[in-house]
Amino acid sequence: MAPGRWPLGYGALLGKDNDLLIIGGGSAGLTAARFASQLELTVALVEKGLLGGDCTWNGCVPSKTLLKAAKSAHAIRNGRGSGSRRLSQELISSR
Known about the structure:
- This protein is mainly alpha-helical.
- The protein has one domain (11-81).
- It has helices at 11-14, 27-38, 53-57, 60-78, 89-94, and strands spanning 20-23, 43-46.
- Strands 1-2 form a two-stranded parallel ribbon.
- The longest helix is centred in the C-terminal third of the chain and has 19 residues, at 60-78.
């Protein structure tokens, strides 16, 4: 990028003074921004991707959601906790 040229959207940051600049909008960056705003500091947060970071979009949250869905599907297939018993394919076919 040529000197003095800023990507679209960065111009809003140039004319303002902030007490704190946070680089990265992951869980730590968002927590730091919230804490700083509670202290009535002006905050600028810069993130190149989606707010929330890798844990929210690629790691922890999607993995836990997939595991919960798999456990639920397993419980449904095996009839656990629903007050019903698992019917064999032979019994279903004979009806």
